[in-house]
Automatic annotation (TrEMBL):
Pfam families linked: DUF3048
Start and end residues of each stretch annotated as Disordered: 22-66
Organism, scientific name: Micromonospora tulbaghiae
Gene3D superfamilies registered for this protein in UniProt: YerB-like (3.50.90.10)
Biased composition (Polar residues): 43-53
Name of the protein: DUF3048 domain-containing protein
Lineage: Bacteria, Bacillati, Actinomycetota, Actinomycetes, Micromonosporales
Location of the DUF3048 domain: 59-166
Compositionally biased spans, kind Low complexity: 54-66
PROSITE patterns linked to this entry: PROKAR_LIPOPROTEIN
Signal peptide residue numbers: none
Highest rank taxon of the organism: Bacteria
Length: 335
């Protein structure tokens, strides 16, 4: 069974119900999402066939630099970004997960595999969203500690990682690098499994309800909107994160419930947390098009499947992707 057949099987309701009953987290109820659709369909850019002498990156679906890079373990880093932050290394990441955190900040989970980054940060604490997003990718994680309960969750997962307290040489202040993390990682780490069913040559983003798009915005209560605009010349989506502009081949917005977590140790505080298990609405932009559908992730060890309105898998263009976890109260609009 190939990957597309496996993912299509994962979308079957009977399979999801069977797996979902064993999850440690309850499935959230799908929230309503406000989506403004543009007009007629435009053609997707044709995907160039991968260079025959180069392997395909499992996280990007695009040719990767060297055979050695294709077989190495991925590394991941959580970052905290405010409007005043100048984050480093994000454009080298193959995959970035974004959670809306407290005080108008973003908690980002950046995953690196096909490219190296000499400076990544500011590195922040581990959070449940990191563990739930990364478990299927098996990366080595560089993080800056965290609340006692979150550290216990990380230790009980199958993930491995390092903090400044474990090895200060891996970090320089609030920053690290892919080279330092790979050097610190135990031998025998495996490359990640593909989390996205990227488009092959001639594939469209969706089999139905495909519409043209030039702008995507996600607005949450009390904070500025996150806006992405399509750069037709580069065939990339560009958005501002903190003080830097980042680009992505695809931006995927998953709507889900957020809960408030009360942290006691080492210091009492409350923080929002996205529940990435369950199912909900998805809005994706890739190339000059957008599509709506449903996402489904039954549990920790399961890939998050993305389907269009008819139940067929979405096929984002090869390249790096941002996955945004939007609360059910968010307004997601496309034009």
């Amino acid at each position: 069974m190939n990957r597309r057949q496996m993912l299509r099987a994962a979308l079957a309701p009977a399979v999801v119900l069977g797996v979902g009953t064993g999850c440690s987290e309850p499935e959230p109820k799908p929230g309503k999402i406000q989506v403004a659709d543009p007009g007629d369909v435009t053609a997707s850019p044709s995907s160039a066939a991968p260079t025959q002498n180069l392997p395909t990156g499992p996280l990007t679906g695009a040719p990767i630099g060297t055979p050695a890079a294709a077989t190495r373990q991925a590394v991941a880093v959580p970052l905290r970004v405010s409007p005043a932050t100048t984050p480093a290394g994000l454009d080298a990441a193959d995959l970035v997960y974004a959670e809306f955190a407290e005080s108008d900040t973003l908690h980002l989970t950046a995953v690196f595999h096909s490219k190296d980054a000499a400076k990544i940060g500011p590195v922040t604490e581990i959070r449940p969203v990191d563990i739930r997003s990364l478990a299927v990718l098996r990366p080595f994680v560089g993080y800056a500690g965290g609340p006692t309960g979150f550290l216990s969750q990380f230790e009980n997962s199958d993930l491995d990682g390092v903090t400044p307290d474990d090895d200060g040489k891996v970090f320089s202040g609030d920053y690290t690098s892919t080279a330092a993390l790979l050097k610190a990682a135990p031998k025998g780490g495996q490359p990640p499994s593909p989390p996205i069913d990227h488009a092959a040559e001639g594939d469209a983003l969706a089999a139905r309800d495909l519409v043209p798009a030039t702008e995507l915005s996600v607005t949450v209560a009390g904070g500025p909107p996150m806006v992405w605009r399509y750069d037709q010349a580069k065939s990339l989506w560009a958005g501002k994160v903190g003080k830097v502009t980042v680009t992505a081949a695809s931006v995927i917005v998953l709507t889900m419930e957020y809960r408030t977590l009360d942290v006691r140790k080492p210091s009492p505080r409350s923080l929002p947390s996205a529940n990435v298990f369950g199912e909900g609405a998805v809005v994706a932009v890739s190339g000059p098009n957008s599509a709506k559908g449903r996402w489904r992730k039954p549990g920790l060890g399961m890939v998050c499947t993305l389907a269009d309105t008819g139940g067929d898998l979405l096929h984002p263009q090869p390249g790096n992707a941002w996955v945004i976890y939007a609360p059910t109260t968010a307004k997601v609009s496309v034009k």
